[in-house]
From TrEMBL:
This is Uncharacterized protein. The chain crosses the membrane at residues 29-47. Keywords: Membrane, Transmembrane, Transmembrane helix. It comes from Ureibacillus endophyticus. The keyword Membrane applies.
Length: 59
């Protein structure tokens, strides 16, 4: 009986850990995406240049 209870507890602990890690990853992804977007906008406004480099090539 004790082994069954330990297994159930381990299952829920691993499930909650995975869920928490997924939520934190999503929050970080949104945060850093907005930060990169803000930097790109500031570069465009302050330096009046493109944040993405493009070059014409022959061929």
């Amino acid at each position: 009986m004790d082994k069954v209870k330990q297994t159930e507890g381990a299952f829920y602990r691993s499930y909650i850990k995975r869920l928490l890690e997924s939520v934190l990853t999503l929050i970080n992804l949104i945060y850093y995406s907005l930060l990169i977007l803000l930097v790109a906008i500031l570069v465009k406004v302050k330096l009046d240049s493109s944040t993405i480099f493009k070059q014409e090539r022959q061929g």
